[in-house]
Amino acid sequence: MARVALTFDDGPAEWTEPILDVLSEHSARATFFVIGSAAEHRVDVIRRMNDDGHEVGNHSWSHPWLARDCEDEQVHVELERTNSLLAEILGRPPGRFRAPHYDVDDRVLAIASRLGLAHTRGDVTPPDWDQRCTARYITTFVVQQARADLVIGLHDGVPSETRERRSQQGTVDAVRLIVPRLLDAGFECVTASEVLSESANA
């Protein structure tokens, strides 16, 4: 069966558990790249992700542009602090990270590698953070591009530095549509590591 990976950035937040409910209903698994400063306030949600069979990844501590704005030491602290928190909660550090805004360069990748982290791409990344994006638009954006070994990048939270009030309810509603449509099309929803390790070994 062809596999795709649903991934979610910027949580955990109030929209995370409704997404977990949808995934559970369909026995689908995903990867959640969590912001450490948000995760420390929603430890139970992190544990639920893990208990439900999802992968928990590192999305930095405070969501900066790592390559553009951070010196080496800050990159290290941003990733190591979240690694340590997740290890404390789950008993092991994550093996994957996704830089905020996908902002990486060779320097950031090297620092992350020394912390045991591999960066995770996003192949299809609808602008679901834009409040003009409807659930139907997000769904169409994803489903029309679905193919084997695809990594889909969505958002279950809003970074704390975002000043305007935003909602990811559109993403929640889209996930309710996307998951059954992917399953009906013959795809299995798995974690990013499952897709990427399988691709690397192909």
Commentary on this structure:
It is a single chain. This protein is of the alpha/beta class. The chain has a single domain (2-201), classed as Alpha-Beta Barrel (TIM Barrel). Helices cover 45% and strands 16% of the residues. The chain contains nine helices and seven strands, in the order βαβααβααβαβαβαβα. The strands form two sheets. Strands 1, 2, 3, 6 and 7 form a five-stranded parallel beta sheet that branches. A two-stranded parallel ribbon has the order 4-5. Helix 5 (72-90) packs parallel to helix 6 (106-114). The chain is globular, with a radius of gyration of 16 Å.
Question: What are the main properties of this structure?
Answer:
single chain; globular; alpha/beta; 5-stranded parallel beta sheet; 16% strand; 202 residues; two-stranded parallel sheet; 7 strands; TIM Barrel
Look at the helices and sheets and give the structural class. Answer: alpha/beta
> What percent of residues are in strands?
15-25%
Gross geometry:
globular
Number of strands: 7
Number of helices: 9
Mean pLDDT: 96
Q: Measured on Cα atoms, how large is the radius of gyration?
A: 16 Å
Q: Please, how many domains? A: 1
Instruction: Please estimate the helix content.
Output: 40-55%
Most strands sheet = 5 strands, parallel
CATH topology: TIM Barrel
Low-confidence stretches: none
Order of helices and strands: EHEHHEHHEHEHEHEH
Q: CATH architecture, please?
A: Alpha-Beta Barrel
Euclidean distance between termini CA atoms: 14 Å
What is the class in the CATH system? Alpha Beta
The CATH homologous superfamily is named: Glycoside hydrolase/deacetylase
